[in-house]
Amino acid sequence: MNAGALFVAVFLACAVEAVEATTIVLAAGTARDWRSALIGVGAGLAVLAGVVGALGPALTAVPLRDLRLFVGALLLIFGLQWMRKAVLRASGHKALHDEDKIFREQLAAARAADAKEVGVVADWYAFTLAFKGVVLEGLEVAFIALTFGSNQHDVPLAAVAAVSAVAVVAAVGVAVRAPLTRVPENTMKFVVGVMLVSFGTFWGAEGAGARWPGSDAALLILVPAVAVFGLTLVALAKPMAKTKAASHRTASPTSAETTA
Amino acid sequence: MRYLKNFFVFWYDFVIGDDWMVAVGIALALAATYAVARTSVSAWWIVPGSVAVILPWSLWRAIRGS
């Protein structure tokens, strides 16, 4: 894996999660109190930095083969979850991730909540909403950045990719002051899922003692093969979603009549 | 006690996710790779082969359940 692939994989994964975190922070700031929301963002980033700072050196101390087995298993489990969701969304079995809808729901919930002052935080609800958004969305990215970086002995480059993605998404979020609905989030999740599954497969098998034909060059076959496999699954699952939708319509013709 | 339970629920949800059988399938695939790699038989195909079965299977379960 070269430095470019490491950067792209971590950047994309981080950008997707940063878009989701931005939506939550925007809702907290817009509906409640910007200062409290930004303190929450700062506290969340501090927790993530602490996790990376503690786990980064620990991971680099693990022997490479054991690390690849552990990391490969973790990436495969994460990656298959990402791909599963992406295929279900692309084929119509699951609603597409809609930042605008999520923003409206978060906004309504934030407006309905009571205000409470705790220490320097004027609005505890805005603080916790932003804090949780940053930590929960960021934790998976921290793991991806750490595992990819430690495997390639280049945690600093993975960290630069992660920080760049957050900076780009945050800058755009501040500029438009609205959820980033135009970001092709579902496509990006599919791409990240493909990368995680491909590298998880490669490192996991290698860590378990297998030898890949062509060594690192096997990744040049593995990545496109996983992508084609995912797209094939989307194509196969699409007609099933249409059939299911048609049978739902047939089962409830009165609702169609009333809406017509 | 409640915090401990929440802590484990969070990590289970974070690592295992929606379909625990995916994690079990991956663990079995890696264990099989480890075992086969100790013989003279090539073992690299076991994990990709397992992914080719696990992902459609997990999707099928999700589609059938939705």
Low confidence ranges of chain A: 255-260
The helicity of chain B comes to: over 70%
Total number of helical segments of chain A?
9
Average pLDDT rating of chain A: 82
If you had to describe this structure to a student in words, what would you say it looks like?
The complex is a heterodimer of chains A (260) and B (66). With 260 residues, chain A is mainly alpha-helical. Chain A has one domain (3-241). Chain A has 9 helices and no strands. In chain A, helix 1 (3-31) runs parallel beside helix 4 and helix 1 packs across helix 7 (185-207). The longest helix of chain A is centred in the C-terminal third of the chain and has 34 residues, at 218-251. Chain A starts with a helix and ends with a helix. Residues 255-260 of chain A have low confidence and may be disordered. By secondary structure, chain B is mainly alpha-helical. Chain B has one domain (18-65). In chain B, 79% of the residues lie in helices and 0% in strands. Chain B has helices spanning 2-15, 20-37, 46-65. The longest helix of chain B has 20 residues, at 46-65. Chain B starts with a helix and ends with a helix. At the A-B interface, helix 3, helix 7 and helix 8 of A face helix 2 and helix 3 of B.
